[in-house]
Each structure stands twice: as structure tokens, then as C-alpha cells.
């Protein structure tokens, strides 16, 4: 029993410090994902001009924010056609966080959109994933019921949660991200949920799988409103090689595997808190290019991204306005590397960005030097700079059919694994120090008591327990 008890104490010491570190890191990352922007005035940015005669698409972002890929990927695909008025809209027009720390200024609020459309519903409403927010959810759900339901609704990823809560999916077939599907099945049993399909078209509602499945769902919207040729051209423009005209492409019925779970927990607990990637925003950057850098790191909780720019606001290729959280001057001191998304930025490197990287002594990367789908080079960079299992897990979470990861990269997430081991050893070492200290204190106390007894003639002191200063009778 004594040996068993000691073994249990050692096990507790081995896992206590890593466990505490994991909980602290997970809690910290949860707060970071949709951390609100700093309070301030709404930047003086005019909404885009409305072109009469074009169908209008409203991409909803809640007051508490929205998923960066779910929002920006459909926006870019639709805007690239030039055939739609595409607006980001929110209950209120103020900067909102997109997943990963990219702050967006919505084009319009609900009331402004209604005035632009003379009270009509938008032709298409895109509903991305939004963080749960009681007041914001209530306002978005009410607007979906009263307004968006009169047009075509495209739910992206777990944006299906809000569409289902608005009652627009009852009795219909629908899909969502495989990782969240079981939870939505339980919460909304009246919906006929399906796995293993990139999108489902059910009349005035189209639902997609997770994240990059939104490309296929968006192309379906374009097919219906502008024709298959326009959809095919849009797929070519953004470099999407997986377009399936007229029908949804099948995909594996993904589930969380043990290896996925281990990689996920290692990154969340022992890499995400200490790894920061600075993302430099430049004028004219593509919206999909932005999503390709912010989304992968945030989705698998492998690192924290921070939006950096040399100006107070940055305008994207199709007119969205972003507010950086850090200025370029001095920003490199707080990050492990700098990434500059965008083909335009890669073709015309800014000397100020290079100087910032040199001054901070951090690597500088332009991921979009070559044409193609924007996520490809970022996933290859993750495989090379982190490890291949993390990059493969990211691809699975993104629902990306294929991605060239390149030949290089560690075969396992050794960095967070080593941190886990060292924390465990630190716990055991701390236990050893405590036990040794306790023994020294105990031994010192015993010696002190023995010395005291010798001094006062108590049994055990002097000859035969008698005081040596007394004469024997």
C-alpha cells in the first residue's frame, strides 16, 4: 500500500503542472478567439455604392463577430464575379472581430440595408458561424425570420445553428461542419441532418459543410443566379480546382480520430499560448488571401494571429474595411514571425515591412508569391514550420479536399510534446524538492530535540542517562 501511495503521488506530480498549463492555455485561447476590438469611434468609411439591377447579397456578421473564413471566402468568390452587390451587414455598424483577431467594419447595419433595398429582402443572405451571444443571436435570428427568409439563404459551416434556430431548416435536409453535426442533431431534431456532402440545395435554403465547403455552396448560388459559366469563371479566378457543376461533390464522412485529438490537445495546451504570428495587412489584399492566413492557425488553435498595419484602416481588394490591432512600427517585437498575405504585396514588397522583420529578428514570409488557391501555401508553411500532422489536421478541419504540403516538415508536433514532457518533469522535480526539504526539516527537528534532552539530563543524555556533571553515589 505504501508503494502504491507513493506511485500515485508521483503520477499526480507528473500530470499536475501540465494539466494546469493546459487549462490556463485553453481558457486564454477561448478568450482570444473573438476578443472584442478596442473601444473607439467608427472609422469614417463610406459604404460601397449600390448598383441597381444587380442581385444583392448580405453577409451577416453578428455584433460579437463571425468566423473569418465563413465570412471572407463567400465574399471574395461572389465579389470576384462583378455580378452582385455584396455587403457585410450587422445589427449595428461598428467594428466586429473575425476569428483570429481581424477586425472588420461592416458595410451596413440592418436598417441601412433595408433603406437601400426600399424594404425588400436581399436576394441572398449568407450566414457564417458566429460566436454565441444572447442579444446578438436574438437580433440576427429575428432578422433571418422576418427579412432574409424572403430570399435565398446560404448557411455556412455552423452558421446552420442560427438558421435552424430561426426555424428555417425544420423538415428540410441540411448539413454543417462534421465536427459540430452531432450537437446540432441533438439541439434541432426536426432537421434532417446529413454527413459527407459539401452542400445541400433545398429550394430557398442552401446549407454547406465546414469552412472551405463554402466555396462550393457559394458557386451553387452563382449558378442559380448568374449561370454555370459565371460560376466556373469564379472558381478559376480564386483557384478552386474542385468545382462540381450542378451538383454537390461527395466527401468523406469525417470524424475525430485519436491522432487528431492528440495533435489538437498538444497544440492547444502547449503551443498556442506562446506562438504568435503577425499578419501584415496591406491595401488591395484579397479577402480570401486574408482568410487563408488567419483561419488555419485559429481553427486548430495552433497559434495566435495579430493584425498589423502601418495605417489606421486597410481596404481590401473588393472594398472591405479592416482595423489593425497593432501598428507596424515595433510590432515585430511581440511576434515569432511576420506573414504578409496577398499576391499584390508579394509582387511589390514594402521595405518598411522588411525593416521591421530585420529589427525584430523574426522571419518574414510572403505566402502568395505564386498563383493558385490561397490556402495551399499557408498549409505548406504550417507543415514546414510546425509539423505535418498539424497541417493535415488543419486540412481536415477546413474540409479542404487536397493540399500540397510539400516535402519538408517534422513528422510529429515535437515542440509542444517536449514542452509537455518538461512540464511533467518539473512537477516531479518539485515533488522531489518538497520531499527532500521535508526530510531535512524532520531530521533537523529530531537532532534538535535530542540535543535538548542531553542538555537538560533527560533519558539518553550523559552516562547511563545521568548528567555528566553529577557524581555517582
Automatic annotation (TrEMBL):
Sequence segments annotated as region (Disordered): 448-473
Protein name as catalogued: DJ-1/PfpI family protein
Taxonomic lineage from the root: Bacteria, Bacillati, Actinomycetota, Actinomycetes, Streptosporangiales
InterPro entries named among the record's database cross-references: Class_I_gatase-like, DJ-1/PfpI, INH-QAR
Pfam families linked to this entry: DJ-1_PfpI (PF01965)
DJ-1/PfpI domain ranges (all copies): 57-211
Species name: Actinomadura napierensis
